[in-house]
Specification:
Layout: H1 11-19, E1 22-25, E2 30-32, E3 40-46, E4 49-53, E5 61-66, E6 71-72, E7 86-89, E8 93-99, H2 100-109, H3 111-131, H4 139-155, E9 157-159, E10 163-166, H5 172-179, H6 183-196, E11 199-202, E12 205-208
Antiparallel strand pairs: 1-8, 2-7, 3-6, 3-8, 4-5, 4-7, 9-10, 10-12, 11-12
Helix pairs in contact: 2-3, 4-5, 5-6
Length: 217
């Protein structure tokens, strides 16, 4: 889970955001590729980025998505590190470049920001463990439900009396990549949840109406 920058809490990081250069990317445009040098981090201002492993090969897979006000490109925290993934715009997207050493200092000298960063990493590991479990009967629904609830907590926007909308258009193939399920399984589960009223599709976005049906509390 990327760190979501909250300006009032993360004042030092927000000062770096205000000083950084903002880039406008078209859908499908690549910001960096595996092996590129990395001394910067990036913050999504609008739109979203996809993080991919093995880009341009038959094994290409989306392994993460990054939404508004979330940080990515954490290799930039370490001197001499190179990029391990490809960062590709999932739609028309604006990103701000942040100086890696500056972000490092901000994390080390702002206890609330550093605490939020550690919590984000803990949740990322927890989700990875949940999605990395064995594919027993019924576990595909648990994996997909966990992912959708995770994205709704991170990025969701509450629609009064309707539910929580995930403001990123997620194809069935991307959801399959992120969960390790087959695309046909994802399609079947989404259709079942829509039929049961747990989900709705609104202009291409998923609206979660009944979190408990997806495994939430």
């Amino acid at each position: 889970m990327p760190l979501k920058v909250v300006p009032r809490r993360d004042r030092k990081l927000n000062r770096l955001v205000k000083k950084g250069d903002t880039l406008a990317l078209k859908k499908g445009e690549v910001l960096y590729s595996p092996g590129d040098g990395g001394n910067s981090l990036f913050l999504v201002r609008a739109g979203h980025m996809q993080l991919l492993s093995d880009p341009g090969t038959p094994r290409e897979r989306v392994v993460g998505v990054v939404g508004p006000w979330e940080l990515f490109g954490e290799e930039g925290l370490f001197t001499g590190a190179s990029r391990g993934l490809e960062a590709r715009a999932g739609e028309a997207t604006q990103v701000t470049t942040l100086d890696g050493p500056g972000v490092n200092r901000a994390l080390r000298t702002a206890s609330k920001t550093y605490g939020a960063f550690l919590l984000a990493k803990e949740e990322e590991l927890s989700l990875a463990r949940a999605l990395g479990g064995p594919r027993r009967q019924g576990s595909a629904a648990a994996h997909l439900g966990s992912l959708l609830l995770h994205l709704s907590r991170r990025l969701g926007r509450t629609e009064e009396k309707k539910g929580t909308i995930i403001p990123i258009r997620l194809t069935h193939m991307i959801l399959a990549d992120l969960t390790g399920c087959h695309r046909s399984t994802v399609t079947t589960l989404l259709n079942d949840w829509i039929y049961d009223g747990a989900l709705r599709q609104v202009d291409g976005y998923l609206l979660i109406r009944k979190p408990k049906a997806l495994g939430g509390s």
